[in-house]
TrEMBL record:
Cellular component terms (Gene Ontology): nucleus
Catalytic activity: RNA(n) + ATP = RNA(n)-3'-adenine ribonucleotide + diphosphate
Name this polypeptide is given: Poly(A) polymerase
GO molecular function: ATP binding; metal ion binding; poly(A) RNA polymerase activity; RNA binding
Region ranges (Disordered): 493-552
E.C. no: 2.7.7.19
Length: 676
C-alpha cells in the first residue's frame, strides 16, 4: 500500500512544478538509495535526535498550559481596560508555534518557539512585558524567566514545567482574536507595527515552506540530518555569522524542489553537490517575489534594485512569505568561505560513502587543531544574571569583530569564529569566545611582517561597552593565544588531546585535508531561468539545466597547516617576540600589515561600523526580478588607499610585541571539478 502511495506521489510530482525553476531531475530512488535512506534514519535515531513519546506528550501539555495562561492574561487586561462585559467574555489570545518544533525536526530538550497573538488593546510594553511577565513570575511552574524587550524580535524566555519556551508577541488591529485565525493571509499584516511583522514572520515562513516542498516527510528527515551535520561541523550559528535553523530549512527546501522524487539519502547528497557549485550571491528563492503581492501594505521586501544594501549580502537566502527578507544577512566573506568548504567536504564524503557509513559525514570539526593562532575573548560579570545579559550582548557583537579585522587587514587576515562559548568551571562568572586566525591562502608571508589589529580590537571593545544596560562588573578582554596555549577547559572533559598521537590526529583531520586539496576550484550552479532549453548531464540519470550554471565560480579555500607527519605544523613561524608558555596568553598589541594589496571584497558592517566601498555595475531588470531570476552582478571595488605614514624615530615599547607570522603556509593543489 505504501509503495502504491509513493508511486502516486512521484507521479503527481511529475505534473506539479515546485519552485521558480524546473526540477533538475525527476528520477526516483533505486534499491541502494532505499537501503542508504534506511541506514540514515537508523543513524539519526541512534544519535538521539528524536524525542520519546513521553517527552512529546509533555510538550503538548506544556503548550496547553501556556494557552490557558495567555487566555487568563488577556481577560484580565480587558477588565483592567474597562471594556464591556461582552468584550471581556469574548477576549481571546492564541498561541502558535514555529521553528524546529513546528517543522517537527526538534530533538530532546530543544526549546519551543511560540508566538502569542493578542488584540489591539493588549500592548507589548505594559501588557506583554508588564502584566504577563508579572503573572508568569508568580507561577511556581515557571522558572528562569527573562525578558528581552529591546531585541530585533522582542521576546520572553522561560521554562514551563521544565520545558524551555521562547515567547514572542504580535498585536493585531482586532478587538477579538478568533480561534481559527489564519496567519498565512497577507491581510493579517494590515496596520501592524514592525515588531509585530517580524514576530509573525516565523509562523508565516514555516507554513509557507510546507506548501512549497513536494514531500514533507523527506524534507523533515533531510533537514534533521543537515542540522545535525551543521552543528557537528561548527557552522550552525546565526549570531556568529553562519546559518541558523530557518536558513538551513530554506536551503533544504530548495533541494527538495529540485529533486521532488528523491529520498532523504539522495537529497543529502544533492544538497552538498548543489551548494558546492552554487554561485553566491545569487539568491535562494523558494518562490518568485511578486511585487504586486501585498503592495498596498507598503512593507519593504528584499530587492537589490531598490535597496543598495541588499547588494552587499554575501549569501542571500530569501524567506518565501511576504514581506520577503534575506534570512542570512549575518553571513560574512569568512563564514561563507568556511561553509562552502564544508559543502565541498560533504560532497566528497557522500561521493565515497558506502551504504551504512554515515559516521564520516558527521565527524566533529577540530576547531582547536585547525589553526596556529587564535583570539580569546573573555566575558565576565559580577553575578549570574548580569553575565547572561552581558554574554548575549557580546556574542551579538562577535560577528562585527570578524568584519572589521578583515576590513582593516585588507582581507589578508582571515577569521573563523567558533559558534559557541566555553565556561571555565573554576571561574563561574566568566565565559570565553574563540576565533581562529590565518593568513589568506596564496599570500606571501612578507618576510615575517606582523599584522597590527590593536585599533580593531579597541573599536570592538568600545562598541561592546556601549551596551545600554551596562553595569559595573561587566568586563571584556581580548588576548592572543597560540594553539599550544589553548586553555584545557575548551576540550571534552577538560583533557587536552595528545599532540604526539599521529594516528589520532590523522583520523580526526583526514576529511579536512581532502577538502584542502580540492576545494579551491568548483563548478557553477545558479538559480536563474532556463535559457534556450539546453541541458547538461548530471550523473548517469540526471540533467543540469542552463539556469543553474550561468555564473562565475566561487573559489573557496579551507586551509589547515600541516607538518610532514600530517599534524599541524608547530614550527610555521614565530608568533610573538618572546617564548610563550603553555596556557599563557598575551594581550593583542601589534599584528602589523605586511601587504600593500587592496581588499578584494568589502564587508557590510552595520551599526557602529558603517563602511561601503562597492559600486553597482548593473541592476537586474524588473521582469527578471519578479520571476525570481535575479542575478546579482559582481561588485566593482573602489580602490582603498592606505594611509600615508610619515616615518618616525622608533619608540621603545614597554610591552612585548605580539606578532602573527605565517611563514610556512601549505599550498593547496587546485583541480577542476566536474559539474557532476
Amino acid at each position: 500500500m505504501n509503495k502504491v502511495k509513493s508511486m502516486a506521489s512521484r507521479q503527481q510530482n511529475r505534473q506539479i512544478r515546485y519552485g521558480i525553476t524546473e526540477p533538475i531531475s525527476l528520477v526516483g530512488p533505486t534499491e541502494l538509495d532505499v537501503i542508504k535512506t534506511k541506514a540514515l534514519e537508523n543513524y539519526l535515531q541512534d544519535a538521539g535526535l528524536y524525542e520519546s513519546n513521553e517527552e512529546a506528550l509533555r510538550r503538548e501539555e506544556v503548550l496547553g498550559r501556556l494557552d490557558e495562561i495567555v487566555k487568563t492574561w488577556i481577560k484580565k487586561i480587558s477588565r483592567d481596560k474597562g471594556l464591556s462585559d461582552e468584550t471581556v467574555e469574548q477576549a481571546n489570545a492564541k498561541i502558535f508555534t514555529f521553528g524546529s518544533y513546528r517543522l517537527k525536526v526538534h530533538g530532546p530538550g530543544a526549546d519551543i518557539d511560540t508566538l502569542c497573538v493578542g488584540p489591539r488593546y493588549a500592548t507589548r510594553g505594559n501588557g506583554f512585558f508588564g502584566e504577563l511577565h508579572r503573572m508568569l513570575s508568580e507561577l511556581p511552574e515557571v522558572t528562569e524567566l527573562h525578558s528581552v524587550p529591546d531585541a530585533y524580535v522582542p521576546l520572553m524566555g522561560f521554562k514551563l514545567n521544565g520545558v524551555s519556551i521562547d515567547l514572542l508577541y504580535a498585536k493585531l488591529p482586532l478587538w477579538i482574536i478568533p480561534e481559527d485565525l489564519d496567519l498565512s493571509q497577507d491581510s493579517i499584516l494590515q496596520n501592524a507595527d514592525e515588531q509585530t511583522v517580524r514576530s509573525l514572520n516565523g509562523c508565516r515562513v514555516t507554513d509557507k515552506i510546507f506548501r512549497l516542498v513536494p514531500n514533507i516527510q523527506s524534507f523533515r528527515t533531510t533537514l534533521r540530518c543537515i542540522r545535525f551535520w551543521a552543528k557537528k561541523r561548527g557552522v550552525y550559528s546565526n549570531v556568529s555569522g553562519f546559518l541558523g535553523g530557518i536558513n538551513w530549512a530554506l536551503l533544504v527546501a530548495r533541494i527538495c524542489q529540485l529533486y521532488p522524487n528523491a529520498l532523504p539519502n539522495m537529497l543529502v547528497s544533492r544538497f552538498f553537490r548543489v551548494y558546492t557549485q552554487w554561485r553566491w550571491p545569487n539568491p535562494i528563492l523558494l518562490c518568485s517575489i511578486d511585487e504586486d503581492e501585498g503592495s498596498s501594505l507598503g512593507l519593504q521586501v528584499w530587492d537589490p534594485r531598490r535597496n543598495p544594501k541588499d547588494l552587499l549580502h554575501k549569501m542571500p537566502i530569501i524567506t518565501p512569505a511576504y514581506p520577503c527578507m534575506n534570512s542570512s544577512y549575518n553571513v560574512s566573506a569568512s563564514t561563507l568561505r568556511i561553509m562552502t568548504g564544508e559543502f565541498q567536504r560533504g560532497r566528497d564524503v557522500c561521493a565515497a560513502m558506502e551504504a551504512e557509513q554515515w559516521d564520516t559525514l558527521f565527524e566533529p570539526f577540530g576547531f582547536f587543531e585547525a589553526y596556529k593562532n587564535y583570539l580569546q575573548i573573555n566575558i565576565s560579570a559580577s553575578n549570574v544574571e548580569d553575565l547572561k545579559k552581558w554574554r548575549g550582548w557580546v556574542e551579538s557583537r562577535f560577528r562585527q569583530l570578524t568584519l572589521v579585522i578583515e576590513r582593516h587587514t585588507y582581507d589578508m587576515l582571515q577569521c573563523h569564529p567558533h559558534p559557541h562559548g566555553f565556561h571555565d568551571d573554576t571561574r563561574p562568572l566568566q565565559c570565553s569566545l574563540f576565533m581562529g586566525l590565518q593568513r589568506k591562502e596564496g599570500v606571501e608571508a612578507g618576510g615575517g611582517e606582523p599584522f597590527d589589529i590593536r585599533r580593531t580590537i579597541e573599536e570592538f571593545k568600545q562598541t561592546v561597552y556601549g551596551y545600554m544596560l551596562w553595569v559595573h562588573g561587566m568586563e571584556v578582554s581580548v588576548s592572543h593565544v597560540m594553539r599550544r596555549s589553548i586553555p584545557s577547559f575548551v576540550f571534552p572533559g577538560g583533557v587536552r588531546p595528545l599532540r604526539n598521537s599521529k594516528g589520532t590526529r590523522d583520523s580526526k583531520r583526514s576529511s579536512e585535508q581532502r577538502v584542502s586539496s580540492t576545494v579551491s576550484s568548483s563548478s557553477t550552479i545558479t538559480s536563474c531561468e532556463r535559457r534556450g532549453g539546453k541541458k547538461r548531464k548530471l550523473g548517469g540519470d540526471e540533467t543540469l539545466t542552463d539556469q543553474l550554471r550561468n555564473s562565475k565560480r566561487v573559489a573557496v579555500s579551507v586551509h589547515v597547516e600541516n607538518g610532514e607527519d600530517g599534524s599541524p605544523n608547530s614550527s610555521a613561524g614565530s608568533i610573538c617576540s618572546a617564548p610563550m608558555k603553555v596556557g599563557e596568553s598575551h594581550p593583542v598589541e601589534k599584528i602589523d600589515i605586511p601587504q600593500d594589496s587592496h581588499s578584494q571584497e568589502s564587508e557590510e558592517v552595520e551599526d557602529n561600523f558603517g563602511f561601503r566601498n562597492q559600486v553597482v555595475k548593473q541592476i537586474p531588470s524588473k521582469d527578471a526580478f519578479s520571476k525570481g531570476a535575479v542575478e546579482v552582478e559582481e561588485l566593482e571595488d573602489v580602490p582603498m588607499q592606505r594611509p600615508v605614514v610619515t616615518p618616525k624615530a622608533s619608540v621603545q615599547l614597554r610591552k612585548p610585541i605580539i606578532k602573527l607570522n605565517f611563514t610556512s603556509l601549505s599550498m593547496t593543489n587546485a583541480k577542476n571539478l566536474r559539474a557532476c
